Amino acid sequence: MVPRAHRIVFALEALLFLVVSRMLVRLLTFKKIVALLLPDQGKGVIAEPELIASVRWALNGWSRRVPFRAKCYEQGLAACMMLRRRKRAVQLTYGVRNFENRLVAHIWVKSGSQGVVGSENQSDFAALVQYPPS
């Protein structure tokens, strides 16, 4: 975890990027969002575990408190923005599964092999598309 003095910066940044993510989801297609957020195909160094923990902490904290939907899609996009801002590698995966005769979608984000958000149950989903492609 980052030093206490930096937590407020992460918290404010996470809130801002969750709001931006929500707006993007409402206005653009998934393909356009990915082209906007990952134009350089995920290049960068793999994020440090402390950075990932801080991003996860900030996004989890706000996702339960904002007055709009902030589930895996919005959290994944916000995580991409937070990591790309720091020139860290990200891979966003969009997957689906059949749950009680309904198709359920899910997004998860990794940096290298480390899960950032949504990856705790990724094995329950079949990956449809990854950005950047592996």
What is Rg?
A: 14 Å
Question: Main beta sheet, described?
Answer: 4 strands, antiparallel
What is the count of DSSP helices, taking H or I runs of 4+ residues?
4
User: Got a strand count?
Assistant: 4
Overall pLDDT: 91
Which blocks of ≥5 consecutive residues have pLDDT under 50?
A: none
- What class, by secondary structure content? alpha+beta
Estimate what percentage of residues fall within beta strands: 15-25%
Total individual domains: 1
Termini gap: 29 Å
Helix content: 40-55%
Which descriptor suits the 3D outline? globular
Secondary-structure element string: HHHHEEEE
User: Order of strands side by side in the largest beta sheet?
Assistant: 3-2-1-4
Which features characterize this protein?
alpha+beta, 22% strand, 134 residues, globular, four-stranded antiparallel beta sheet
List the helices and strands and how they pair.
Layout: H1 4-27, H2 30-37, H3 49-63, H4 72-85, E1 91-99, E2 102-111, E3 114-117, E4 126-131
Antiparallel strand pairs: 1-2, 1-4, 2-3
Structure description:
46% of the residues lie in helices and 22% in strands. It is α+β, with helices and mostly antiparallel strands and 134 residues long. The protein starts with a helix and ends with a strand.
